[in-house]
Write a structure and sequence with these properties.
2 strands; single chain; 8 helices; two-stranded antiparallel ribbon; Four Helix Bundle (Hemerythrin (Met), subunit A); mainly alpha
Amino acid sequence: MRFRKIISLLLATAFILSACSNQSAQEKIYNHLEEAVSLEDTFRKQQKPLMELEEKEKKLYNQIIDLNMEEFEQIKELSKEAASVVKEREEKLKSEKESIDAAKEEFDKIKPLIEDLSEEQSEAKELANQLVEKMENRYNAYQDLYKAYQNALDLDLELYEMLQQKDLTQEELQKQVENINASYNAVIKANEQFNTYTNEYNELKKQFYDASGLNVTYEDSAGSESKDSQNNSKETN
């Protein structure tokens, strides 16, 4: 099974409307929305390192299962190295989550501003309320993704601890590998839901800016960026 991890990102824009000292409600909302994008920079930056660490761990695992018990000391050393890579992945995941949490906190600042939109901006107000709902969905979907990925990492660590035990049976190894592969299937599903909400949010944000009369340009690199992940499923000999 191939595992392709694709992360959708918030769409960034550039504000063209001339600045003024007394900002309108829609301009204040714009500032918070784009600051939320900026706060997800750390989230973006974790994607490539995560992919590289996944690839490194996969290679180590493949080396391990190609060895036999006469090479047990080498199995132990490689297992320890693989476990350290999993812990590095865990640190990247933690940074990713902190970035998402900070962005959500910034986004929430638009909520009291929505009521400040004028009666003539009823369409913009409706779209802003839809944005709030969509962001809540996206944030909750990320929490599910985070939990699923953390569970997969925990199982990976358990695997490398097991591989350091000389009395490990083939049946025990097979069962652990099956649990790991099931956990990454859960990651895939959670990731797909997160991406769906992200794409829907980005489209709503465009509609809100249009309805608000904000003159913005869209940066191609932000909304469409994605990262591939190595296959995290595992096999046994």
